[in-house]
């Protein structure tokens, strides 16, 4: 048996890990879109490094685009097998993939306006038709239920606590009378998350494919998230009369922000200003989370006893229409605008940043992971000038960050996730989904925890299991 790493290898995007059995059967773990990789992003997304038509089964850990965003491309290039995931992941993947297809098609249409020859025109990575075909191949499996996807392969999902529906994947593979147990962590959430249950314990594994996004960081903030939000809003909106612009992922981060703001209202502490969620996708994602209360932790369940709508409060308005979104830029009153994308690499939030970044009254507030090369990452890193829509802007607005709002566990969370294993029985740990320098530091921590064989795969590297 072999495993090859075709994405999220010494990087935090494009998750794809291909398991090939001795009899030729192939099983793909995740099929993510590469994002924020600069000039090579397009090239990375156009070539898998393997033949999609030869893949027999696909298992999806969760619905973030860097884990599911190339699935329609996989299908368009010949994959005809089932896609296994949790029910909530299927619900989220539907809205995220349709939105991604819309963006692909719009980008291609815009680019082709300047290209006259048909043979030179750009094609989208996939279309909405490809997405609908992909969704027809989804098959759902609940948490904590053994499921045989073939006579030789069984899968078991445990809650990873990352986003609604996220799962750690546990495989039992039988070859010639020998059983191999392989765990893929997916993305591991935080213990004590604001909304979700903590990551579950999981069965003993022989091999572990482990994410490492924050493998050398601790999410230490002195104040609870509600207090930090209140401080930023009070300082920016009430004292300076400015706007707070928050780039936030439509799934997970936006809902955490709404829950925290709702908590302030329940305490009669929420400033009486307008709050906008400028992302149609966020509205749909919030409805998905509302429809899956089984993922809530006990603290949220207690709040639900006194407040039926944990994501709604006075002054909140969801913006769907493009004209309404544009109107926010000319509205000078103090307000909070939450808009995607989380790394500020696309979406409506880039327009809000452009219109507010050069005014000292305003604050750009980052609330999650941002790759160093992304706009959000460069702002956090202290860059003083940025290019937006072909024009350079001075960074005069305040730049702030709440690191504790990451959906990814820090190194203590990741080590706690691994701690349920008898390290002496784990033959190898593969570190994926992390920047290389971070992975090197985390590898030392994993080794110190008793795991004697830790590898950091390179892009397209293959290992014998």
Automatic annotation (TrEMBL):
Asked if Cell membrane is a keyword of the record, the answer is no
Gene3D superfamilies in alphabetical order: 3.40.50.10890, Ribonuclease Z/Hydroxyacylglutathione hydrolase-like
Work out whether the entry's keyword set contains Hydrolase. yes
Q: Which Pfam families match?
A: Beta-Casp, Lactamase_B_6, RMMBL
Q: Where is the Beta-Casp domain?
A: 254-379
Metallo-beta-lactamase domain location is 13-235
The record's CDD domains line, in alphabetical order, gives:
TTHA0252-CPSF-like_MBL-fold
**Protein name as catalogued:** Metallo-beta-lactamase family protein
Q: What is the lineage of its organism?
A: Bacteria, Pseudomonadati, Bacteroidota, Sphingobacteriia, Sphingobacteriales
């Amino acid at each position: 048996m072999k495993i090859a790493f075709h994405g999220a290898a010494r990087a935090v995007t494009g998750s794809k890990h291909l398991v090939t059995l001795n009899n030729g059967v192939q099983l793909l773990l995740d099929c993510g879109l590469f994002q924020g990789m600069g000039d090579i992003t397009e090239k990375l997304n156009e070539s898998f490094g393997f033949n999609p038509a030869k893949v027999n089964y696909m298992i999806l850990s969760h619905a973030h685009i860097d884990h599911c965003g190339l699935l329609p491309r996989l299908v368009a290039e010949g994959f005809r097998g089932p896609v296994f995931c949790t029910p909530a992941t299927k619900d989220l993947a539907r809205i995220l993939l349709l939105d991604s297809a819309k963006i692909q098609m719009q980008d291609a249409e815009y680019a082709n306006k300047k290209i006259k020859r048909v043979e030179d025109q750009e094609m989208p990575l996939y279309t909405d038709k490809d997405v609908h075909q992909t969704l027809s191949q989804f098959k759902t499996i609940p948490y904590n239920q053994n499921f045989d996807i073939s006579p030789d392969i069984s899968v078991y999902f445990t809650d990873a606590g990352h986003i609604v529906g996220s799962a750690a994947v546990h495989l039992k593979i039988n070859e010639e009378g020998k059983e191999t147990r392989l765990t893929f962590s997916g993305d591991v959430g935080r213990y004590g998350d604001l909304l979700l249950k903590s990551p579950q314990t999981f069965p003993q594994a022989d091999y572990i494919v482990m994410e490492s996004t924050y493998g050398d960081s601790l999410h230490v903030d002195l104040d609870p998230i509600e207090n930090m939000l209140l401080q930023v809003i009070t300082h920016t909106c009430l004292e300076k009369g400015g706007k707070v612009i928050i780039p936030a992922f439509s799934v997970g981060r936006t809902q955490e922000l709404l829950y925290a703001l709702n908590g302030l209202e329940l305490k009669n502490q929420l400033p009486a200003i307008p709050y906008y969620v400028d992302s149609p996708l966020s509205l749909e994602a919030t409805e998905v989370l509302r429809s899956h209360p089984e993922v809530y932790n006990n603290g949220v369940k207690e709040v639900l006893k006194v407040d039926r709508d944990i994501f709604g409060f006075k002054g909140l308005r969801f913006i769907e229409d493009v004209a309404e979104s544009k109107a926010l830029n000319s509205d000078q009153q103090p307000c909070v605008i939450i808009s995607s994308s989380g790394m500020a690499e696309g979406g409506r939030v880039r327009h809000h940043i452009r219109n507010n970044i050069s005014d000292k009254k305003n604050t750009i507030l980052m609330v999650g992971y941002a790759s160093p090369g992304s706009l959000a990452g460069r702002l956090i890193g202290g860059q003083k000038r940025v290019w937006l829509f072909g024009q350079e802007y001075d960074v005069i607005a305040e730049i702030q960050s709440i690191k504790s709002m990451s959906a990814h566990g820090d190194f203590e969370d990741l080590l706690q996730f691994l701690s349920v294993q008898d390290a002496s029985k784990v033959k190898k740990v593969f570190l994926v989904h992390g920047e290389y320098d971070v992975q090197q530091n985390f590898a030392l921590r994993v080794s110190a925890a008793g795991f004697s064989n830790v590898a950091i795969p390179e892009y397209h590297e293959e290992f014998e299991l």
